[in-house]
């Protein structure tokens, strides 16, 4: 199992880094595929609520493209997209045969179609900034290091459960280690690669936000999987589970990092 994880990482990490380095349509295409796979896995997890899977995937795909290629749309893209999605989902229910539990179907369908693409599109927004390549590497490296530190220190020193009803293996000790090492990684990365982009205090602020929100985002996905009685969101990545498992930490992180960075600059 460990060997499989290491081999997958050895192949996957260079591919992700190459896409970040290239940017543009290559990075966008990678994030589009990742977003749709995450939506697909989320819909599979929530299948007991009978979401409108095909329509959710279709709306998620169109929404992701819309958010990226229509940046100068004359009205608020997010608001109008949400209204259209809700309108479509209610239309399906109104002209359907069974109104029972329609709220559950609409809610679960909308969450997948709206939130996941909206979160992950911010990775492309970050990459398109003038210093986007460095900042995107910064986010990935800090998340990977904090996740690793939280897992290792939690396994060795963990005594107090962080959220035992959601993710029994996560501990307070592991979470604290994740925050500490996330901060260290942010400061070191800034010192080596981003001296002219971030101040030390900016790197500390962003590192702390990523370390805390990244772990919260991971727990948010865990509670979805717990509701679906699943350990992993899928099996597409050997040794690692699903795509949703690998990118859950970025769901809340990337929008927040993007707007904090814009504020700081």
Describe the structure.
The protein has 265 residues and is mainly α. The protein has one domain. It is built from ten helices and no strands. The protein has helices at residues 2-22, 24-45, 53-69, 77-94, 102-127, 132-157, 172-193, 200-227, 243-247, 250-264. The longest helix has 28 residues, at 200-227. It is globular and about 60 Å long. The model has no long low-confidence stretch (mean pLDDT 90).
Secondary-structure map:
Elements: H1 2-22, H2 24-45, H3 53-69, H4 77-94, H5 102-127, H6 132-157, H7 172-193, H8 200-227, H9 243-247, H10 250-264
Helix pairs in contact: 1-2, 2-3, 2-5, 3-4, 3-5, 4-5, 5-6, 5-10, 6-7, 6-8, 7-8, 8-10
Number of DSSP strand runs: 0
| Weakly predicted, low-confidence segments | none
Radius of gyration: 19 Å
Into which percent range does the helicity of residues fall? over 70%
- General shape: globular
Order of helices and strands: HHHHHHHHHH
Sketch the major β-sheet: none
- Average residue-wise pLDDT: 90
Q: What percentage of the residues does DSSP assign to strands (E)? A: under 5%
| Distance, first to last CA | 44 Å
In DSSP terms, counting alpha (H) and pi (I) runs of 4 or more, how many helices?
10
> Which structural class should the secondary elements be placed in?
mainly alpha
| Count of separate structural domains | 1
